[in-house]
TrEMBL record:
Example of a GO biological process term: glycerol-3-phosphate biosynthetic process
InterPro entries to which the protein is assigned, alphabetical: 6-PGluconate_DH-like_C_sf, 6PGD_dom2, G3P_DH_NAD-dep, G3P_DH_NAD-dep_C, G3P_DH_NAD-dep_N, NAD(P)-bd_dom_sf
Protein name: Glycerol-3-phosphate dehydrogenase [NAD(P)+]
EC number(s) on file: 1.1.1.94
Native source organism of the sequence: Alsobacter metallidurans
Amino acid sequence: MTAFEAIGVVGGGAWGTALANAAARAGRSVTLWARDASEVATMRDRRENVRRLPGVRLEDAVSPTADLADLRRVDTALLVVPAQALRGVALALAPVLPTGCPAVVCAKGIERATGSFMTDVTSEAMPHATPAVLSGPSFAEDVSRGLPTAVVLAAAQESLAEALAQALSSSRFRVYHGVDMRGVEIGGAAKNVLAIAAGIVAGRRLGESARAALTARGFAELTRFARAFGGRPETLMGLSGLGDLILTCGSAKSRNFAFGVDLGEGLPVGEAGHGKLAEGAFTARALVEMARSAGVDLPICEAVDAVLSGRVGIDDVVERLMTRPLKSEG
Ligand SMILES: NC(=O)C1=CN([C@@H]2O[C@H](COP(=O)(O)OP(=O)(O)OC[C@H]3O[C@@H](n4cnc5c(N)ncnc54)[C@H](O)[C@@H]3O)[C@@H](O)[C@H]2O)C=CC1
Ligand SMILES: O=C(CO)COP(=O)(O)O
């Protein structure tokens, strides 16, 4: 197994920049690709991603570029663009990467147009790459400041997941490894929808008890969905699943949670989140449609989708959730 010395980070947003720094601190040399040439020029000059991650110095081992061809010699690529942009970027990257190169999905979402998971999008768009996925409770700001963080990286082959985890880990960024790609990616995608729900509860001032109940019942939804789509329930008990749900359903720093707070306070969908990326808003519809087709009950995610589509008002949705037929907790 190679040592994975040269890492390519594809996507120059907050998370791509934070991961580039994390990989550099783990001793890797990093090429950070962003599509916007002027942002790349600024990153090179100022050693800072002024727009997406202000106040954080780029590590010396990070080389920003706007040219995808500069990734042709990397031995691992981290895919860190928004979920709905992943396919396009992966298609462009496919001819550049060496055959067999691991392509680690770091985006959290489901492709809206096709209802596809991110690792499947990656396999389709980059048939010569080896898909993997990294997820877990990790705000870009925390990682970039070097605060202690733990995530999980899964690949079909355990030895590959372990080698990649080794390559990216440092004393501040601990990467666990596993083989349940589906479970890990479902945890990351579904928690964003539930974080919007938790934000709505906070914005509507429904109370801390309601938020805790929603988080716990949301976790039940996430686990049911994962089981139906081939993820292992025990994976969802871990960092990508319970861990990320606790983080994003409880923190105003989460963009999905903040988007929900805006909705709860009465802002229209088009204004909620103030233009920041809230992946759950794109994933909600795909998630509920997939669940319906598999006969999986996701009442909270359904409620989020109904609010986002404007079909039902927030107070009606809460009433509906609270008056569903009583059932056993399992
Ligand atoms: N910010 C965070 O704390 C974390 C984010 N993530 C995930 O990482 C992914 C990216 O999020 P962030 O970097 O935070 O978002 P961001 O909003 O900070 O940046 C998104 C970046 O993607 C670029 N982009 C958008 N469309 C593109 C396209 N078609 N081609 C090329 N580049 C494109 C934008 O120019 C921007 O640089 C999301 O799926 C998010 O859920 C995961 C863990 C933590
Ligand atoms: O996924 C994240 C932390 O694990 C980031 O959450 P937001 O995208 O909601 O900010």
